[in-house]
Amino acid sequence: MGLFDRLKRVVGANLNDLVSKAEDPEKMLEQALLEMQEDMVKLRQGAAQAIASQKRTEKQYQDAVNEVNKWQRNAQLAIQKGDESLARQALERKKTYNDTSVVLKTSLDQQNVQVEGLKKNLIQLESKISEAKTKKEMLKARITAAKAQEQLGNMVSGMSTNSAMSAFERMEEKVLMQEAKSQAVSELVSTDLNSQFARLESSSDIDDELAVLIEGSKQNTLPPALPPAQPSTTTPAQPTNTAKAIQPVDAELEELKRQLDKL
Asked: What pLDDT shows up at residue 233?
C-alpha cells in the first residue's frame, strides 16, 4: 500500500469519526422529518400541476370530440341537401378534429396514469411522514432515557462509596454529640433548679427561726439561757446577776441580725 493510500485512509477515518461524533440522533431525526415534509410539498405541487394539465387536456379532447360530431352532422346535412362538395369539406374538417382528438386522447391517458401515480405517492408519503413523526417521538423518548441513564451511570461510577459513607458517619457523630450536649444542658438546668429550691427551703426554715428570735427580742421574752434558780431562804436574788446573764444573749441576737442583713 502506497503512502498516499495510507494517508487517504487515515484522513477518511478521522473524517468519519468527526461526522459520527457530530451526529446528534435527535437533530438528525428532525432534519430527516423536515426533508420528508419538503418532499411532500414538492410532490403536492407536482401533483397539482399534473392535475391541472390533465383537466386542460381533457377539455381540449372533449372540444375536439364535439367538433368531430359537429362536422359529421354537417356532412350528413350537406349530403341530404345534395351538396357533395360541401359534404366533402365537412368531412375534411371532421378528419382534422378527429386526428386532434386521437392525439389528445393518448396524452390524456398518459396524464391520467401520471396523476394516479402522483396521488398514490402522495398518500404513501403522507403515511410515511405520519409514521416518521410517531417514530421520532418514540426515539426521542428513548434517547432522553438513554442520556439520563448514561448521566446516572457516570454519577454513580464517579461517586466514592467510602467517602460518602464516611460523610454520613461524620454527620451521625455530630448529631450524637449535639444530642449529648443538649441532654447535659437539660440535666444541668434541672440540677440547678433543684438546688435553688433546696436553698429556698433551707432559707425559709432559717428565716422562720430568725423571725421568732427577733420577735422574742422585741418582747423581751427570750427563753432563759439557764434553768431558773431555786429560791433561797437566806440570800435573795441579785438584779445585777440577771442583767449579766441576759447580756450575752442580746449580743448573739445582734450577730444573728447582722448575718440576716448580709443575706
From this structure: 45
| Cell numbers for 185 | 444542658
Contact between 260 and 212 under an 8 Å Cβ cutoff? The reply is: no
Three cell numbers, residue 39: 418532499
Cβ–Cβ under 8 Å, residues 98 and 128: no
DSSP conformational letter for 222: P
Q: Which residues of the chain have pLDDT under 70?
A: 1-23, 156-165, 167, 187-210, 217-249, 260, 262-263
69 near 76, Cβ under 8 Å?
no
Burial status of residue 13 (CB atoms within 10 A of its CB: 0-12, 13-18, 19 or more): exposed
Whole-model pTM above 0.90? Answer: no
Chain centroid to CA 97: 76
pLDDT in tens, 59-83: 999 999 999 999 999 999 999 988 8
| Residue 236 DSSP symbol | P
What does the angle CA 169 – CA 184 – CA 172 come to, to the nearest 5 degrees?
A: 10
Amino acid at 96: T
Q: String of b and e for 210-248 (b: at least 16 CB within 10 Å)?
A: beebeeebeeeeeeeeeeeeeeeeeeeeeeeeeeeeeee
pLDDT in tens, 202-240: 655 666 666 777 777 666 554 554 454 454 444 444 444
Q: What is the DSSP-derived secondary structure letter of residue 263? A: -
